[in-house]
Specification:
Layout (H helix, E strand, L loop, with lengths): L2 H17 L21 H17 L9 H12 L5 H9 L8 H23 L6 E10 L2 E9 L4 E11 L2 E9 L2 E2 H15 L2 H10 L11
Antiparallel strand pairs: 1-2, 2-3, 3-4, 4-5
Length: 218
């Protein structure tokens, strides 16, 4: 990989790291809303990110001893607005259909724990960033909120794909610098399932080895 491509990849990874805060918790959702939602998708994203940055920038919470309490605060704030089950369903795509309810519940928890462990540590390096809100696009029960994450060194496009359930908006995908989190993992999951099996995917999620080459056994 060339230095330029490596820098772009690092930016994308860093962007996803911040936004994967949204994946640290999941909550149950009600059925589809039957009426026009009262709240704005942009307002939801703005309120959530404002509170996230407030916590990250709080000098009283930067002490290493405050690491876990700070993460719990972040989980509480952002867990209310990310539909982790919807993200899991979309990441597995057609492979979700044959699963039993117990298998689906297991997958959701494993995927959540995998992403939390994979990215949570990188979040701690964020400080002083701000978000510029660019536009909002609505299509029925779906929305996309376009933003730009701005720091002293770079600007990274961030798009939030959202779904409305019971009159409330929840994020189910994040597009960081053109890279979809859901599509990225869908490709990896599909490859593992077709080359090995669904059970192998579950094992690798549990072992935190998705994204790594499978080691050959002798």
């Amino acid at each position: 990989m060339t230095p330029t491509r490596l820098r772009r990849w690092n930016l994308r990874a860093a962007a996803c790291s911040l936004l994967l805060l949204l994946i640290l918790a999941a909550i149950p959702h009600a059925s589809w809303a039957s009426s026009q939602p009262a709240e704005s998708p942009t307002a939801v994203v703005r309120a959530t990110l404002t509170e996230v940055f407030r916590i990250l920038d709080d000098p009283k919470l930067k002490d290493p001893d405050k690491l876990m309490p700070r993460r719990r605060m972040l989980e509480q704030v952002i867990g209310e607005r990310f539909d982790y089950a919807e993200m899991s369903k979309r990441a597995l795509a057609a492979n979700w259909t044959p699963l039993t309810n117990d298998q689906r519940a297991e997958f959701v928890e494993l995927f959540k724990a995998f992403l939390s462990d994979r990215y949570a540590g990188k979040i701690e390096g964020y400080s002083g960033e701000r978000t510029e809100y660019l536009s909002e696009r609505l299509e029925g029960q779906y929305a996309e909120v376009r933003t730009r994450l701005i720091s002293s060194k770079t600007e990274i496009p961030m798009d939030y794909r959202m779904i409305n359930k019971a009159g409330r908006w929840y994020a189910y995908d994040i597009i960081a610098d053109g890279v979809s989190l859901v599509k990225n993992y869908r490709s990896q999951f599909d490859k593992i399932i077709h080359s090995d099996s669904y059970d192998e995917l579950v094992k690798r999620l549990r072992d935190r080895t998705v994204g790594e080459e499978k080691k050959e056994t002798r």
